[in-house]
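Record minuted for completeness.

…
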Amino acid sequence: MTFTDNVSAVGTGGKQDDIITSLAPGVRLSGETARLRVFADYSLRFLNYARTSGRDTTQNTLNTFGTFEAVERWLYVDAGWTISQQTISAFGAQNAGVGSLNANSTETSNFRLSPYVRGRLGSFANYELRYSINDISSKSALTTNTRNEVFSGRLNGATALAALGWGLEANRQSVEYANGRHSQIDSLRGRLVYTFNPSWRANFSIGQESNNFSLAGESARLTHGYGADWTPNERMRVSAFREKRFFGFGHNISVSYRTPFAALRFIDTRDVSVTPNQSGTASVGTYYDLLFAQLASSVPDPVARAQQVNSTLAQAGISPTAAITNGFLSSRALVRRRQDVSLIFNGRRNTVTYTLFQSEQQSATVGAAGVDDFTASTSIRQRGMSSNLSHRLSPSTSINTLTSWQRSEGNTGLSTKTTNASLGVTTRFGARTTGSFTLRMTRSDGVTSFAENAVLAALNLQF
C-alpha cells in the first residue's frame, strides 16, 4: 500500500493525494536440460486507487530468456521477452514509483527471437549464420511500434602465423516503423587480429557500409578501424576500438574490474542505433540490469546469473525493477554517445551501488519521422547519478537509502531535472515472508515541475 500526496505527478495546483493498494501475484522459474536453458520471471500487478475513481488498472512485468539447442552442436534458438513500464519523453514527468498516474509512462513489450547455425568449415574457419527479429510495442499512441530484423554472417579463421587471425562479417539490419518509415543499414567488414601474448591483442578492420537515412537515398562509404584488448588477469579487462563511420568516428571503450566483494565497470560508446531501446535511450536500466551486466564475466551462464542477481538483491532489500535512471523512447535512427561508470560493493553487512552517467543523442534521420522528443530538439543530452546503500542491521533486517538525480537538456532550451530520495527498512518475518516500510520524496523542475511525497508498506510472500 502507498500513500502519496501527488498521485498524478502534477504541479501544485492540481495535486491530489491518494491511497494505492497493489496486489502483484507472480511466478519465477528456471531450468536446464542437456539442450534447453530457460529463465522466466512474471508478475501481474493490480492497482486500486481509493480516491481517484475509474483509474484502477493492471501492469505486467516480465523478464524471460532461453536458449535451445535444436540440432546438436549446430542449430540453436535464442529467445527473450521483456515487459516493463518505460518513460516516453525525457522532458515529461519521470516515474515517481509504482502506482503513479503518469501520462509520460507506458507499458512496453520487447520480444526477441534469434535462430542461428554455428559450425566449422573443415580446418579452414568457424562460421555463424544468424537471423534475429525484435518486435517492440507499447500501449501509448505517443510512441511508435517497430519491427527490427537482422541477417548476419561471420567467418573466423587462422593464418600460417599462429598469432594472426582473420574474420569476415556481413550484416543487413532493417527496421519498419509503424508510422511507415523504413530504415536500413548494410555493412561488410574484414578484420585482422594479432595476439602479442595471452594478455595483449590488436584489432584492425576495413569495409563498407550504406544506409538510407538521407533523402538522397542509399550511399556507400568506406569504413576502417583499429583497437586493442588487454586482459592482465581473469578479474580485469580493458577493451578499446575506434572506427571511421558514415557519421564520423565511432568508438567502444570498456573497462571492467572485479574482486570477491566488488565490481567496477566503465563504458564509453559512440554508435548509430536504428532500434528504439526498450529500456529507454541511454538508460542504464534497473538494478537488476546493472548487477546482471556486472556479473557477466564471473557468472557467464545467464540462468545461474539471474538466480544470483535476484538472491543478492533480495538480501539487500533492493527491488529488481527499481530504475537507476530513466531513459526515454524514440522513433528514429540516432547517433548516440554514452558514458557511464558503475560500482557494486557487496560486503558482509553492506551492499553499495553507485552509477554516474551522461549521454548525448542526435537524430541521424533526414526527413519525416515519428513524433518524439527529437521533433522539438535534434540533440538531447542527459546526465545522472544514482547511489544505493543497504546495511544489514541483523540477519533478518536491513535499512536502505536511495538517492538519484537526472537532468535532460535539448539544444532548443528544453530542460527537466528530477531528484529522488528514499529511506526504507526491510525485514524477514519467516523463511518465505518479508516486509518493508519506505519513505519517498520526488522533485522535478523544468518543462515538467512537481513535488511528491509518499509512504509505502509492502509484504512479500513466496510459496
